[in-house]
What we know:
single chain; 247 residues; alpha+beta; five-stranded antiparallel beta sheet; 5 helices; 26% helix; globular
Amino acid sequence: xxxxxxxxxxxxxxxxxxxxxxxxxxGAVYTADQVGGxxxxxRRWENAAGQALYYTAVVSQPLVQPETLPQLMSIVxxxxxxxxxxxxxxxxxxxxxxxxxxxIAGILCESTETPLGRVWVLGVGINLAxxxxxxxxxxxxxxxxxxxQGTAVNPKKDIPALAEQITGQLSARLPAFSQEGFAPLRADxxxxxxxxxxxxxxxxxxxxxxxxxxxxxxxxxxxxxxxTGEREIFTGEVSVKGIYGNL
Length: 247
């Protein structure tokens, strides 16, 4: 297993897609200075040089349920943060990590077709040492870091250690996931999922609806109930009442 460190890059996902041959069948790349990062739906992920971990794992083995890689990575990162810092994160479906209601980590999973076959790149951005002023300057009232939530962080030591921790947690989870998909993760995921039991609103295209989140099934879908019955949600934007200002 190889873990590559970069002093700076545009995006660890972009670097991994260009340099996958250095990391397959399973490896990772990380930096503390990512100048062109992005999140889901093309959203920009603000750089905080030396204060955050930007990490991408590369996986080239066959996967029975690759569409649930975001849920896998949310559990992997939550486990790593718990083990290294004692931080008990919650997951906002499908893959945002929250600590005390503040988003501290985001995940972006992509794939690329190569001469070696399909390669998956699993990107993670984790806010570690930024202060409140950083998020205020970026107009991100619902974001936070481990430091703003009261966790002591030593970036120089903790960033490489966390990259190692995430890689180890992913390595431990990957064999069962590759063969069985989300099902072996479901109990751990549901225990951490902040959506369960709450009213959620989802949009898909121009349509918006709401209901109470009752479960996450073995395929990683949200099960939502309202007056029209039971719905299964796997795509689209989902907001949770009381989270990120959605009151």
